[in-house]
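Question (not urgent): is this output format expected?
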Amino acid sequence: MSDAMRQAVDELRAKVSELAKDIRGDPRMQDALRQLAVLNGMEQLIGESPTTLGDLLDLESQKADSKPSLAPDEFHLLEPLEAAKRYLRLVGKPARTLDEIVAAITTHGGRVPSTGKLKTQLTRSTYQVAKVGKDRWGLAEWYKERKQARRSSGADAGEKRADEEVGQDRSKFEDSNVTTEDYRQPSLEAEDRDQARDGC
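Got this back:
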């Protein structure tokens, strides 16, 4: 890179940085950040992913313009679930709606015979796919930090307690001396008495 180009880059970076500093100092931005913090707290209470400032300013759409385009045969001969995961991997964040996923697959060489089946598969593929909100899916790897933060904050404590209680109940049963004889039906016991009386 030439010195002139490097100098131009440095000057433009300084201008953009100064502009960003002015925007951060704007009272409207400060108000938006305060309200966003409240919104994030409410979203956490109902188990939704937090909205980011980038989401509100639609910054991801600008990044999406620079992403590589999909080939016309990108999803040819792929199963719908595999095609959906490949699509999410190629386009990246943010999470996409089912309609977006299906449209991308079908316009790039793939087939989705049943959108209902694909929706079920996406929902059940929890190791690789994360359901975000009511009708959006992303890759689970995009949200690892959030899941770890949730675990460390104790948000999953209820699930852990439930697992422990099931384990305790199971161990109580395994430790008891209960046998199938303890659960014999009364009619079988009556039959046994009748047989014993007839045998006498």
